[in-house]
């Protein structure tokens, strides 16, 4: 943080003041989810954590005491974190990729369905179900991330303790940032300033 020298990481739910965030310096409202960057945490790893990591952590915590969980879209950004966090919490995880059949479980995290009927078909397999695309008629099933400093601190600590692995696929210098939008392979893409 300019002035204090504190290194921080996080995500901007409240828009930066002025332009976007491809800048060396950016001014953001302090009400964003921001946390100190631990000394021994790779800044690229910290950059890859916030939105997907907080979403996964908060989703898994929404499952309460459910013992088993279906995760549809398990190989994606949120899914790959949710699989690890749910397993670390002692849950039996059933990862669902393209073409996989669903089986009954205590809970469902649907990261893929883009319409109500698709989500409803998946939700038949579990008494407790959430989607991330706001497609359910039941607002309680529509998960919306509420990011916080506390969630970021916990995620950083899970990475430091080895409970959470952050799959970084590419580290791209800022001058090549436009290439990122041409698509990318598995894992997170991080732009290095
Ligand atoms: N509500 C919230 O607060 C919130 C927060 C974060 C994210 N989101 C939303 O959550 C969704 C997931 O985010 P993400 O970052 O994880 O996306 P992502 O990285 O694109 O991952 C989506 C994953 O789903 C897989 N997939 C696609 N179609 C599938 C199918 N029919 N069956 C099984 N798996 C399938 C994809 O596999 P392929 O690689 O084979 O395509 C990919 O691995 C997005 O729609 C995002 O906008 C919402």
UniProtKB/TrEMBL annotation:
Q: Which SUPFAM superfamilies match?
A: GroES-like, NAD(P)-binding Rossmann-fold domains
Q: Which domain of life is it from?
A: Bacteria
Lineage at the top is: Bacteria, Bacillati, Actinomycetota, Actinomycetes, Pseudonocardiales
Q: What is this protein called?
A: Zinc-binding dehydrogenase
According to its UniProt entry, this protein's organism is Lentzea kristufekii
């Amino acid at each position: 943080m300019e002035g204090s020298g504190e290194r921080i990481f996080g995500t901007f739910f409240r828009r930066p003041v002025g332009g976007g965030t491809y800048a060396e310096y950016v001014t953001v409202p302090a009400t964003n989810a921001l946390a100190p960057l631990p000394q021994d945490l790779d800044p690229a790893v910290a950059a890859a954590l916030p939105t997907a990591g907080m979403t996964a952590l908060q989703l898994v915590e929404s499952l309460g005491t459910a013992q088993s969980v279906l995760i549809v879209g398990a190989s994606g950004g949120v899914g790959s974190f949710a699989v690890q966090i749910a397993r670390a919490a002692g849950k039996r995880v059933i990862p669902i990729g393209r073409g996989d059949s669903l089986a009954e479980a205590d809970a469902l995290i649907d990261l893929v369905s883009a319409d109500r009927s698709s989500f409803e078909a998946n939700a038949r397999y579990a008494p407790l179900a959430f989607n991330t695309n706001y497609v359910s008629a039941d607002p309680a099933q529509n998960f919306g991330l509420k990011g916080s400093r506390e969630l970021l601190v916990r995620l950083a600590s899970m990475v430091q303790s080895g409970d959470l692995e952050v799959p970084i696929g590419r580290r791209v210098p800022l001058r090549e940032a436009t290439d990122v939008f041409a698509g990318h392979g598995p894992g997170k893409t991080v732009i290095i300033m």
